[in-house]
Design goal:
By secondary structure, the protein is an alpha/beta fold. The chain has 11 helices and 13 strands. The chain has helices at residues 2-21, 30-33, 57-70, 122-131, 148-154, 161-164, 167-170, 199-203, 237-249, 251-257, 262-275; strands at 26-27, 51-52, 74-77, 96-99, 106-110, 113-117, 134-135, 171-177, 183-185, 212-219, 221-222, 232-233, 284-285. The strands form 4 sheets. A 5-stranded antiparallel sheet has the order 5-6-10-8-9. Strands 1-2-4-3 form a 4-stranded mixed sheet. Strands 7-11 form a two-stranded antiparallel sheet. The protein is elongated and about 75 Å long. Residues 252-258 and 279-292 have low confidence and may be disordered. The chain binds flavin-adenine dinucleotide (FAD).
């Protein structure tokens, strides 16, 4: 009986969302829903009668309010590239997917700051930032599919995490819809904002448990002017330290060579040397040189 009532609530919610926000806001065609019921690695399988797909923050707020009234759980979903099944609905069909993919605009881009909607694909932000001589420094293998909202929700790291930190440290503010349907607007991007609790930072890494991220104010950094990559073999810790210090002193080379702190660098290098022992002779030996 409870299950029947629950399914009735789900179908009423789908109809309400459709009538208020139009046919695109509720996808029920099985062929369109099916691909989003399983995570990309095929490890987690779920079921859902529909994908709710709002086009604006107000629509997200409206849907969250309706879902709360009908007591229907929502599973936020971005690119569905997560590793732990957080974007997969439960297999009993008791929840609906809330996809943010239609909310994919860059609302503004300025020096050092971009405001992007939650459904924007990461690589689109990279492209847009580079057109302004800047870059968004977080990047990872899923950049062509994962979304800004998903990156915030998982507090993702990526290949430059040692230098720039996880997503949390690149978030200057968030807009989010809270469980009662109210809208939290933290998009001012102010660096100095010490008023009370920091809800934005609490939302980063919360995987949709505290609210639905709808947009983010993100830090941009200047684009890399030129890049040179060297693989350097050094025979001892002292040599590594003097090489690192020398790079640091040369400001032109130092900005990105500093992305790896010396301790991490040492252990990386030791791992490389241990695994690549036969090719060791090919490395440039420069530990003894005064200039590194
Ligand atoms: C090839 C590959 C390489 C990767 N490399 C790295 C790496 O180097 N470092 C690293 O940290 N991670 C890495 N990841 C994981 C990556 O961080 C996640 O895949 C990504 O952040 C998820 O984004 P998404 O848009 O696909 O979110 P989804 O997978 O759709 O969702 C992930 C979680 O966030 C929630 N969520 C999604 N959108 C919102 C929203 N708008 N509001 C609230 N909650 C939301 C979902 O409910 C779910 O719990 C990699 C993944 C892949 C596939």
């Amino acid at each position: 009986m409870a299950k029947v009532l629950q399914q009735d609530g789900i179908h009423l919610l789908i109809e309400e969302v459709r009538s208020r926000f139009g046919p695109k806001a509720a996808i029920t065609d099985r062929a369109d829903v099916e691909p989003w019921l399983t995570d990309w690695r095929g490890k987690y399988h779920g079921d859902s009668a529909a994908i709710l797909s709002p086009a604006s923050t107000e629509e997200v707020a409206g849907i969250v309010k309706l879902a709360a009234e009908r007591r229907v759980p929502l599973i936020p979903q971005g690119g569905n590239t997560g590793m732990v099944g957080g974007a997969t609905p439960p297999s009993d069909g008791s929840a609906l997917i809330l996809s943010l993919r239609r909310m994919n605009r860059i609302r503004s881009i300025d020096t050092g700051l971009a405001v992007a909607e939650a459904g924007l694909i990461l690589s689109s932000l990279h492209e847009r930032a580079s057109e302004t001589g800047q870059r968004f420094p977080l990047t990872l293998g899923a950049r062509g599919s994962c979304t800004i909202g998903g990156l915030v929700a998982t507090n993702a790291g990526g290949t430059q995490v040692l230098k720039f930190g996880t997503m949390r440290s690149l978030v200057l503010g968030l807009e989010a819809v809270l469980p009662d349907g109210s809208i939290h607007d933290g998009l001012s991007g102010l660096k100095k904002d010490n008023r009370g609790y920091n809800l934005d930072q609490l939302l980063a890494g919360s995987e949709g448990t505290l609210g639905i991220v709808t947009a983010a104010a993100l830090r941009l950094v200047p684009a890399i002017g030129s890049r040179a990559v060297a693989w350097v073999g050094l025979s001892n810790a002292q040599g590594r330290w003097s090489f690192f210090s020398s790079c640091n002193r040369r400001r032109t080379a130092s900005r990105d060579s500093r992305s790896c702190p010396p301790t991490a660098w040492n252990s990386c290098l030791s791992t490389c040397l241990a695994r690549a022992a036969p090719s060791r002779a090919a490395f440039v030996e420069c530990a003894d040189r005064g200039d590194g």
